[in-house]
């Protein structure tokens, strides 16, 4: 490091302007509907008299406060440590050892991009309390953020080994957008849209009118037609919303391997995101196939890496995703490239099935779920009105075959196996997950057996690791086969405690 590189630096001064503009937008969005609700109409003069002074005061306070924050915040990139000093009343000094830095994520929302700025988060990948494992520089110039990312993640020791495989591993294919509408996000967006319409109508004192108009329109048709039309409208809105969400999240997506052994995911339309993951933290991959995606033969690829097991401080929950929903063959190809294997462990091993007793457990759980859904309707039907009794038997007639089909599918999806240096486990129906976990990354085994499992000779094995979710389970495997699998996968853990016959 040169002397200039070890000097204390300031955040970008334009942070004051960004904060003022953001606050002005929030005040306008929050205050103008209140003005309309009070006066019954929009009046520019009334808005200027009521909202104007409040906006001036709030924006002035924000500008002064953010300017003081900018003056009192400094950071320094040294040869051994990254340091950040901040605080107005209480001064706080934090630092991270450069050799322990495992991630430098660069994010830029639309407003930051307009001013050429970015938010840089530097992390060690450790799970400590109160955010001591990361530092945030918000904001710095976009070029400075990119320079910091390259500088802090440069690993000379592994650069030569990684150079042969550097380059783009995956990039967005426009055809992948067809998988967006079949996610659980679609009905959620549709329901949220109706809620948003009612909320906006309430701001302008029109909620009762909107509800009355909607009911009048629905009464003109038979009940079944009205319900179907209402559901169809929600699904259309949900499909459009899910397509827009996919475009915003995965626009210009690229997965790259950089010199120094770093995986980098870049994506985003309005908000650009650059998430870096050091390969030394990688302990495997997980191919996730929600039911809708699986019906279309698609799945996404998540990283199983240290430092990604919990999301804190408002972090995004998608930082572990290396590739969005794509055709399963493409997902397996990317998983193999990420793991530096010729064939992905999630596709190369024939998984062993589980005993039939595991199928019986899933069928019973499915029927119990239907009973829990129908029982309240039966009780209310006996107490209040016979109409609910008819609704109860209709629900039972429809839900029972669906629940049993899902139970059989969940049983077919159970499996486990070993290939090379990985143990592979699969489970789930609504959300099928196939995880390939490095055997050397397993630090413990837990064998759990309920009284019902014991009667049928089953147990659930859980591999404990410091990466990903922290634990990955092999559900309802036979006792003998499960213990043998655990010993074969990691001999030094269960082996000394087993009795061999």
TrEMBL record:
The residue ranges of the YdbS-like PH domain are: 70-149, 411-482
State which residue ranges cross the membrane: 16-36, 42-64, 179-201, 221-247, 365-384, 390-408
* InterPro entries referenced in this protein's UniProt entry, alphabetically: UCP026631 (IPR014529), YdbS-like_PH (IPR005182)
Q: Which UniProt keywords apply?
A: Membrane, Transmembrane, Transmembrane helix
The keyword Hydrolase belongs to this UniProt entry's keyword annotation: no
State the source organism's domain of life. Answer: Bacteria
Q: Under what name is this protein listed?
A: Putative membrane protein
């Amino acid at each position: 490091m040169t002397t200039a590189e070890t000097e204390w630096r300031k955040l970008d001064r334009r942070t004051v302007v960004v904060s003022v503009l953001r606050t002005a937008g929030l005040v306008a969005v929050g205050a103008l509907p209140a003005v309309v609700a009070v006066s019954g109409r929009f009046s520019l003069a009334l808005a200027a008299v009521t909202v104007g002074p409040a906006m001036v005061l709030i924006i002035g306070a924000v500008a002064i406060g953010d300017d003081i924050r900018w003056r009192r915040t400094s950071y320094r990139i040294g040869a051994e440590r990254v340091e950040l000093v901040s605080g107005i009343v209480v001064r706080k000094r934090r630092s991270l050892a450069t050799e322990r830095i495992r991630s430098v994520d660069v994010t830029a929302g639309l407003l930051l991009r307009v001013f050429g700025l970015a938010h840089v988060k530097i992390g060690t990948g450790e799970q400590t309390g109160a955010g001591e494992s990361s530092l945030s520089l918000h904001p710095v110039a976009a070029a400075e953020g990119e320079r910091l990312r390259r500088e802090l993640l440069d690993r000379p020791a592994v650069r030569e080994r990684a150079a042969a495989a550097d380059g783009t591993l995956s990039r967005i294919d426009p055809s992948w957008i067809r998988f967006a509408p079949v996610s659980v996000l679609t009905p959620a967006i549709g329901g949220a849209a109706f809620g948003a319409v009612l909320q906006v109508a309430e701001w302008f004192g029109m909620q009762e009118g909107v509800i009355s108009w909607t009911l009048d329109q629905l009464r003109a048709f038979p009940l079944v037609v009205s319900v179907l039309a209402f559901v169809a409208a929600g699904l259309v809105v949900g499909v459009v919303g899910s397509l827009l969400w996919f475009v915003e999240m995965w626009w210009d997506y690229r997965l790259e391997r950089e010199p120094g052994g770093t995986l980098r995911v870049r994506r985003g339309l309005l908000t650009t995101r650059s998430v870096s993951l050091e390969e030394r933290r990688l302990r495997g991959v997980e191919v996730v196939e929600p039911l809708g995606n699986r019906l279309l033969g698609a799945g996404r690829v998540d990283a199983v890496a240290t430092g990604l097991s919990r999301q804190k401080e408002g972090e995004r929950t998608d930082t572990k995703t290396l590739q969005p929903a794509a055709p399963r063959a493409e997902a397996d190809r990317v998983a193999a490239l990420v793991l530096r294997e010729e064939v992905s462990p999630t596709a190369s091993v024939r998984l062993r099935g589980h005993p039939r007793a595991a199928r019986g457990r899933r069928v019973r759980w499915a029927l119990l779920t239907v009973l829990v859904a129908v029982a309240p309707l039966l009780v209310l039907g006996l107490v209040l009105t016979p109409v609910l009794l008819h609704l109860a038997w209709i629900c039972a007639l429809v839900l029972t075959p669906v629940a049993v089909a899902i139970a059989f599918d969940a049983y077919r999806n159970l499996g486990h196996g070993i290939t090379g240096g990985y143990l592979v486990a699969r489970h789930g129906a609504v959300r099928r997950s196939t995880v390939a976990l490095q055997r050397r990354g397993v630090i413990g085994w837990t064998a759990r057996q309920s009284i019902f499992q014991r009667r049928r000779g089953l147990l659930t094995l859980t591999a404990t690791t410091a990466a990903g979710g922290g634990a990955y389970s092999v559900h309802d495997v036979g006792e003998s086969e499960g213990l043998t699998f655990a010993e074969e996968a990691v001999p030094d853990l269960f082996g000394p405690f087993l009795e061999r016959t």
